[in-house]
Amino acid sequence: MIYLDHNATTPLCGEAREAMLPLLGDLLGNPSGIHAHGRRARAAVDDARDSIAAILGAKSHELIFTSGGTESCNLALLGLSRRHRTAEKNHLITTASEHHAVLHAMRALKEKEGFELTEIPVNERGLVEPEVFAAALRPGTILASVMIANNETGVIQSVEQLAAIARERGVLFHTDAVQAFGKMECLPHQLGVDALSAASHKFYGPHGAGFLWLRSGVSIDSIQHGGFHENERRPGTENVAAIAGMAVAARVAMAEVERGSEAPRQEALRERLWHGITSTDPSAIRNASGAPVLANTLNVSFPGCDGETLLMGLDLEGVSASSGSACMVGSIQASHVLLAMGVPEERARATVRFSLGRHTSEADIDAALEALTRVLSRQHRS
Hints:
It is a single chain. It is built from 14 helices and 12 strands. By secondary structure, it is α/β, with parallel strands linked by helices. The protein has a domain at 2-9 and 260-381: Aspartate Aminotransferase, domain 1 (Alpha-Beta Complex). The protein has a 7-stranded mixed beta sheet with strand order 2-8-7-6-5-3-4, sandwiched between helices. Strands 9-10-12 form a 3-stranded antiparallel beta sheet. A two-stranded parallel ribbon has the order 1-11. Helix 3 packs parallel to helix 4 (100-113), helix 10 (262-280) packs parallel to helix 14 and helix 11 (307-316) packs across helix 14. The longest helix has 21 residues, at 36-56. The mean pLDDT is 94.
């Protein structure tokens, strides 16, 4: 099988697996326990917290461990909005191309709790224009949320510039870094954000773990009720083994980013894939062309084809790709990200996302192109 769906999830790296194995044995205790078993578990969680904080250039107490990216985004948006709402401040901002973990949370605040919400548009390249963002801010705005890198198109937003605009107006700023962390530098203080969400399984760590970085001094309401874990911000017994694996995976991934060799390698493979696609199907359209994008991501529309049929054909040929967000499996709707960019619905439905990883090789790309040629040939014949 050729795996070209790394934006959906990445395979667990060996270093993370080795870190997790001792914590999956019979001697693991509850990290809230005061006995030796509990202290061992607590030490593993604390070490992981210190390690990730160091990577972020942050303080350990600024990290809140969660079950993944969706919970991290929900905790940030629901928790910050509820805590900082006043009679005068009741307005939220996000973009039309955000992940549903952000969009659905924001819309729930509007529909169920009476918050006002502005979903600002993106341009045809998928970018948020700073002047449009600035115009959406108003005296009653509490919080804005703009992702660093889009999971479907790979488009990278100018978060640092947008966060600076929000900060000048006294507006809290959250960024969904789920797709970006592990692929590019994501230092929250450098970005100027107040909250940043990430998920372990996007950077070769285990499923079921993530974190929310929250700027020191920014208060937040818990969105769950139970114990006093995570400094009373996220109750629930910590997933010790997954947290330990996440910390190691984060260290490996960000060391890779610092070395600066993997992104250019993946970018070269991505371009090899794109040039092969255009040779096979000259009508193919590269979405978000001209925008800065993640080195590993290629979003392509194949006019006249059906995206779902293309994906099924590729799967039968041994190639794993996707149509967009892994959280929308079974959805018959066209990508909301592409529609927000002004892509016609018919074209949006004829789209495949290819996302590469650290183990993707030239041989994989060439084999995927051969498979795609056969699949397209069958579609065009039918």
